[in-house]
Each structure stands twice: as C-alpha cells, then as structure tokens.
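Subject: complex prediction, re-run

Hi both,

The earlier run crashed halfway through, so I resubmitted it with identical inputs.
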Amino acid sequence: QKEVEQDPGPLSVPEGAIVSLNCTYSNSAFQYFMWYRQYSRKGPELLMYTYSSGNKEDGRFTAQVDKSSKYISLFIRDSQPSDSATYLCAMTEGGYNKLIFGAGTRLAVHP
Amino acid sequence: EAGVAQSPRYKIIEKRQSVAFWCNPISGHATLYWYQQILGQGPKLLIQFQNNGVVDDSQLPKDRFSAERLKGVDSTLKIQPAKLEDSAVYLCASSPEQEDTQYFGPGTRLTVL
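This time it finished cleanly. Structure:
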C-alpha cells in the first residue's frame, strides 16, 4: 500500500463547476498537508498549506484535512479553464522528514 | 524574488552515458532537494541537503547517482551510467530554514534512449 493515495483522473468538468480533489494516507504521523498545482512541463507550485485538521480558504480554493479519517481534500469553486493542471497532494511529519507526494490528479476545465 | 533555476531544461542521452543537472536555489534558502518525477507519478525525493550536509539520501541509487552542494548554494546531480528507467523529470526545490514549504524549479526532462 502506498503511503499516499490519489485518484489520477483525468477529471473533466465544465467551467464554473465545483471541483473536489482528494487524497488518503496511511501514516498517522503526518501533520503538514499541502496541495501543489503543476502545469504541463512546469515544476509544481504551492497552492495551499495546512497544519493538522481543519479547513483553510484562499480565494476560490478550500483545503480540508480530516486526520481522524486520514483524508484530505481540495475544493475549487467557480472553476476556470486556467485551473486545468495536475494537482498533487503532499504531506510530511515535519522537521527534516521528507515530503511524500500523491501521484497527482489531472483536471481539465472546459469552456 | 528569483525562483529556483535549473539547467538544462531538456537532455537526451543514450543508455550507459553520463549526464549532469544543475540547480540554483532561491537566495538564502538553506534546504535543497532533488526529486525524480516519472511520467504519471508524483515527485519522489532523491536527496535533501541542509546547507552543505546531506539530511536524507535514502532513496538515491548510489551506485549510479551522485549529488553535491558545494558552499551550501547551488547543486549538481549526476547520473553515471544512465539506464532507460532513469527517463524522468528531475526537479530541484528549495525551502527556507525550518519551513516545510518547498519551492520548485521548472525541472530537467531527461530521455534515455
């Protein structure tokens, strides 16, 4: 079993839709959770960063962490064609422990 | 603020040849990471430097991969000899001291024929 599981998609939605992206994990020691966005032929860019359980909102993006279920989500409201990218979840125990990435979910938002 | 710089952006070599990648992190970032991202997968950490020292190289195939970070600034990753399965994007990232957020460069896309 992988430490972090993420549905690879692809996920295709119409412009304006609400998108839900999810990851599950097995290591209960993970405390820091991130979402990265990666456009084709580019490096990942940090989108959201959360510590422990709870919600965090930034514009059209909301990150949720449920540590009891070992489940994290990223919601995108009013999705735009410019949101078309691969979304990678990542998590770490913190300190010098390495970041563990999911495989990424490809999202396509069509006009 | 300038981002993480990497070169070359693309490299095509034949198996058993050697190749080197270069990374210049964001100024002042103490921690530097090299990742391997195979098509359809998330990045996998190869090596992590804290200033000059190696923090984690547990997933670096040391029989063929080597990395160094001289003077605690830029870094090179070398593969010698390359195998077909080394075809991937090699990403460099950096982070400020005692922060978990990492900032990635554009990557080097390596194709081994």
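Chain B has a mean pLDDT of 94.

- K.
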